Structures
1.
Amino acid sequence: TRTNYATRPLPYDDSTLTGWSATPGTGGAGTFAVRAADGTRPYRGFRYTWSTASSTVTGLGGIVCEAVDVTAGATMSFGAITELGGYGQRLQMSVVFKNSGGTTVSTLTGTAAVFQYGARFLIKAENLTVPATAVTAHVSVLRQNSASSYQWYVAMWLEVSGVIAVIGSALGAGYFDGDSPGAAWSGTAGASTSVFTAPSDVVTVVDVT
């Protein structure tokens, strides 16, 4: 049995952005919205599209996923099904742990890597120890801050279509939510944790280590 502790792991309708946000990087601008499913991509995604971008746009830039409830001292792993449009980018996952007052306790990151556009991939941060006073983890997919040879471009987009947060030192079999075969929502569909209880043909994504 595995539990995905992300309670809003994917867009469950064509408009609701609750719990999710985006940052274009300093000097950048763009639009954040739910991309509806279509014939090419039969799944929804949280997508940010840059309308202002250049080599002068600094900072991270990327998508900030929902907050996940965590247990102090636990070992957890996080992942996000991600896709790029237009150009490749050097990305990494950032996990910001906060206490009950909303103050940042610690920020941990996964290994940065260059990802190419045109294919879905799983970006992750594994084997993280939840700090003693943390109650939530805020998961983000961001451009690596030191990646000076990579930038955002006009009309380039970044999309996240699924987030997973599990107890353990690794993600294991990959992404699942309550709509995946062998899994179920623990409460309201699209707004609760998910429990996976049986082998199934879950979404297969590229495992980048």
2.
Amino acid sequence: TLLTQALEYYQTLEPRDSARLSQATILTAYHYWWKGEKSKAYGLLENIADTNKEALWTLYALTAKDYNFKACYEYLCRIMEDEKEKESFENQQALATLNFYLNRPDECERLFDNLTRYIRTPQDSALYWGRVLSNHADIISDYGKHDKAIQLQEQVLNHFIGKDSLRVSFAYGSLSRYHLLVAISLSLALPLISQPLQVLHISIQRS
């Protein structure tokens, strides 16, 4: 194809045009990825990822699309070795989410709890209120901490009341689900709570 021919041309060009070579490599990697030749795509990008930040970001994006969360997490950590990237709200929330997918509940919750310290721009704030905080609540509920999830989702609800009726309806839906889960948890726990009392009552009667 023209892409692979362009890549071969820039790979042999002297003097080397680094910008064009980088662009050709990334475009060709996407071409291979879309064709399903993913090992070729990743191989091309890995060859330049140590010195090419755009290639590293592309590896991060493609592994996310492939649901390869372990590799995605590793690429994001490499990206965040840069201090500026480490302080990015978007990167921090992505790191928290990846820890959820990797079944690391303690680290996931810690990262989500600390996210507000990274909010610095209106875009960060919009992302936090529009998506991240409700995701945080859902994840905490998934961990069985429904009371905390309710508190978080109520923050979303209060933020959008009178501003965005669709997000308000979503927040009410989530809150209904959390309260239902609390009720189910209590109904399952009640027999366990009452069992020692029944045993105690029986033992007293027999004595």
3.
Amino acid sequence: VKVVSLDQTIHGRFTETRFEVPQFDIGAGALAVLLPEGAKAGGRIRGTAATQPVEADLTLENVNVALSEGLGVDQLNGAISYRDGAVTCKALIVRGADSDFTLDLVSRGGKYTGALTGKRLNVNELLAIKDKLQAAQPAPSANASSAPQTPVGITGTFDINMANVVFRKAQLGNVFTNVNALNGDVELGNLTLASHGALRRKIAAPAHV
């Protein structure tokens, strides 16, 4: 069976219980229509997919996204899978947005568990990307707005081991911390960092930002 969507063609097959795409290779540029107006994307996405239950294994190769001038990600390389309601990133290399790190992540039911390891993490730039994507989402309907609102913000736990971290006006070096987030409220535990060369500081008590 040939399926054409967003100017991309993939070939699948029906089995007795599900629909399967044994292999596909698409241009990430076609996904720009799913991003905010004016955004551009490039690179390749390869993988397999199936329904009932929905499963997918994707490999990103030099995928890049530009949401606007100076705001985007230059390279995404690595594996992303979806199974049993969970999205998993394995050794996903993120370069761009003034950042360079590797992401290992599991997302299930709106909660995240993962680790970020690398040379640089610019939290300000990544939050700007998140805000740009959220601002482009359709406004809720009247019925949706009258329903109980889901809390906005990230919930999960992360280990961060980064040579340099930029957050607000602070620039920190050799940062290691355990992050606990609940609806966007962040608590930092076991925070160890270095500043001005060899000076190292360890904060035993959690820090709130």
